[in-house]
Structures are given as C-alpha cells and as structure tokens.
Amino acid sequence: MSKNIRTSAVDHLFEAILSLKNSEECYTFFEDICTVNELLSLSQRFEVARMLRNHKTYLEIAEKTGASTATISRVNRSLNYGKDGYDMVFSRIAEIKDTEDEIE
To answer: Would 20 disulfide with which of 25, 28, 66, 91, CB 3.0-4.6 Å?
Structure first.
C-alpha cells in the first residue's frame, strides 16, 4: 500500500519549488530546506537514473556515484515501474538542450 503524498503541505512545497526562477534560487532554497546529506542523496538518485537510462552497469554506477546496489535497484524499479517522472524530466532536459543547440 502506497502512502498518500498528496497533501496540502506537499502542495505548498511544490508551489514554492515551482516559483524558483533559476539555479541560483534553487541552491538558495534547497540549502535552506534540505540538509546537505538530503540534497546529496536526491542528486545521487537523479545521477543514478541518468546513468541507468544511458545503459551503464550497476558496477559502473556504484563506482561513479558511490550509490549502493540497493539504491541503484530502487531507482531502477522507479524507472521501470514508477510513474515516469524521471523520463518526463529527462525528455524536457533533452528538449531544452536541443533548443539551445539550435540557437547557437
């Protein structure tokens, strides 16, 4: 049974995140709201997901990121059976990069 994360408190958090305008604002906000370890854990999971999508092996990922095989497996499960949030973001990042390449 999954926990319901759709609460007004989570809504308020997401509204705050969506109000951020650039990387510097993200650093300022996330350094206040997260511990260093929480932020590093989130970024590690995102890097693991990116590497899995680029067909890297668990060993390569563990060596590069320091993630445990349990973390890699959890991220892989989200990629394969989750709600496609990672893929949505990867697709948008690729679109932004393509647009920037066209402008140059």
So the answer is: 25
